[in-house]
From TrEMBL:
Topological relation to the membrane, as annotated: Single-pass type II membrane protein
Catalytic reaction annotation: 3-O-[beta-D-GlcA-(1->3)-beta-D-Gal-(1->3)-beta-D-Gal-(1->4)-beta-D-2-O-P-Xyl]-L-seryl-[protein] + H2O = 3-O-(beta-D-GlcA-(1->3)-beta-D-Gal-(1->3)-beta-D-Gal-(1->4)-beta-D-Xyl)-L-seryl-[protein] + phosphate
Organism: Mesitornis unicolor
Protein name: 2-phosphoxylose phosphatase 1
Keywords: Glycoprotein, Golgi apparatus, Hydrolase, Membrane, Signal-anchor, Transmembrane, Transmembrane helix
GO cellular component, as recorded: Golgi membrane
PANTHER family per UniProt: 2-PHOSPHOXYLOSE PHOSPHATASE 1, ACID PHOSPHATASE-RELATED
Amino acid sequence: GHAPHYFKLVSVQVMIRHGDRYPLYAIPKTKRPDIDCMLLPSRKPSHPQLEAFIKQMSKGSAAQMEGSLGSLPRYPSHSLCEMGELTQTGVVQHLRNGQLLREIYINKHKLLLSDWSAKQLYLETTGKSRTLQSALALLYAFLPGFDWKKIVMRHQWSTIFCSGSCDCPMRNHYLEEEQRRQYSLRVKNNDLEKAYVDMAKIVGIPTRQLRASNPIDSLLCYFCHNVSFPCTKTGCIGMEHFKVIKGHQLEDERERQEKKIYFLYALLATHPLLNQTVNRLQRIAEGKEEEVFVLYSAHDVTLSPVLSALGITEARFPRFAARLVFELWQDGKRPKEHFIRILYNGADVTFQTSFCKDYYKRSSKPMCPLEKFVNFVKRDMFLVFNSTNYYDACRRRPL
């Protein structure tokens, strides 16, 4: 919360990746990692508000949940986690996120007063239980004991949050190009191939089938939960396999930034979401909008392209419970002037963005003028496609 003392915080928009989850894929012919998704306040990692959170969630039938969200559980509750289910660690991560945001934005900056109204919140999540539950955990620690009648949870069917603007042929073209790049990098990596062949032998399946089961997803879960890697009669998948795959992922991240195909995909993929964000910030700056706290609960495939499109190249891949925050500030001496600040996992990344890098060199203010962000989203995002708007950029073949 660093700002000149005469600045006023007027709105906060938060994008999160869901918290720690059980794997989405199983390694064939191995026992699934034995992880309990029941919430037990006595078990580590815990949180002082965990027990109160569980109580609050059981009363949630008064909330308005759009679409299929109403049929999802509001917190995890299986003694053996289901595939992709949020774990207790994941719930605790977002209780901590909510608590941090509360300390700064509610206690210090009085962003929402105790009599806040439903209009002041905008909440949106994809249709997965892990994103809904992450949103509710963060919201609970941010506004403990909130009134369920004021909660309207919107359902977003697209993981890139493109709402009504998802038709974009060139976005799909760049995504396919990016997948080709990933494939050719993988094929070149002999150590990676050896590791897959070796692991496939251990579990007794074809290498192709093992690769398709995306073993890194499971292995990360074993690793993060301190559960020993799976074994069969033939041997054990071990740390050396894990290191090779993880090393390849890091190399892939580096090449992805150099080759810029992903960046082109990211610009087209995130424009609808960034455009919605900018329109909202402009309306708030003009005093027309009341949405002071916005929460998008999403996935790594949502956050990653947003970071790329903004030009924040130093940001690491979004880990579980990553948070990206857009703050809107008003200059108290010149009330018409508004500034934004962007934080990623608590670090100020405003001046790493492509649209505010240069401004920083010339200004003493610790933030970026809102119009810089507006011009970027409304105009400059399309320059690289030799276009002036989203519709055209989505349809213009590269030369």
